[in-house]
Design brief:
This protein is of the alpha/beta class. The protein contains six helices and seven strands, in the order βαββαβαβαβααβ. The chain has a seven-stranded parallel β-sheet with strand order 3-2-1-4-5-6-7, sandwiched between helices. Strand 4, helix 3 and strand 5 form a beta-alpha-beta unit. It starts with 8 loop residues before the first strand and ends in a 5-residue tail after the last strand.
Length: 222
């Protein structure tokens, strides 16, 4: 085996769909031994991890033992006017982005790197986006503090802009216009691809002098 991550063990939280699945496939192509997790696994090959439940995190960590790289793509977006806020929905968003990563750091024995996912909404406040924005913003601070806490394990975050990952497919016929408008608001005149994110994650995993940072992949939107 000659890949960058030959013999490394990699765990991808949320690795059964979209970005997580692409990251898992890319790590596998680089000869890593990859495990993917889901909060609701459909088969025995997928590890059960529910970031809302510490017992499931602890059990998963005990089951798979030490790992070299852990990537969490977990996300729970929620938007609503503040006076219509549902506390349980906000708590789920916090579990995915705030308390969940703390539980991962607590229970998993990570040997090389922990990579978390933020998002550009953290730096672009708007009406109704407080839950998603605050939880994504917290990831940037989590990367800094966990880098100090877990050193020499490297901890970083990625903050994507608009990525055509399949998330926007639900817009149907409006998707193309949405992506065109989003592209016009970037400095590069385009939107991101899944491969952009995959390349960034693999670089972070292999960059021994990079820690405590949030890498913004938003085409200059911020």
């Amino acid at each position: 085996m000659t890949g960058r991550f030959a013999n490394d063990t990699v765990l991808v939280i949320g690795g059964t769909h979209r970005l997580g699945a692409a990251i898992a496939a890319a790590a596998d192509a680089e000869d890593a031994r990859v495990t993917v997790s889901s909060h609701a696994p459909r088969d025995e090959s997928t590890l059960h991890i529910d970031l809302r439940d510490e017992a499931s995190v602890a059990a998963a960590a005990q089951r798979i033992g030490p790992i070299d790289h852990l990537i969490s793509t977990a996300s729970m977006t929620y938007s609503a006017p503040i006076r219509e806020m549902e506390l349980s929905r906000v708590q789920e968003a916090m579990a995915a982005k705030i308390t969940g990563p703390l539980l991962l750091a607590k229970h998993f024995q990570i040997r090389q790197s922990l990579t978390l996912f933020s998002g550009q909404v953290a730096w672009r406040p708007g009406s109704g986006s407080y839950a998603t924005g605050i939880t994504n913003g917290a990831i940037a601070f989590a990367a800094q503090h966990l880098a100090a806490e877990l050193a020499p394990v490297r901890v970083n975050a990625i903050s994507p802009g608009i990525i055509d990952s399949g998330l926007w497919d639900a817009r149907g016929a409006e998707k193309a216009a949405f992506l065109t408008a989003a592209a016009s608001r970037t400095l590069v005149g385009g939107t991101g691809t899944v491969q952009d994110i995959v390349d960034a994650v693999l670089w972070i995993m292999s960059a021994p002098f990079f820690t405590g940072e949030t890498l913004r992949l938003d085409g200059g939107r911020r």
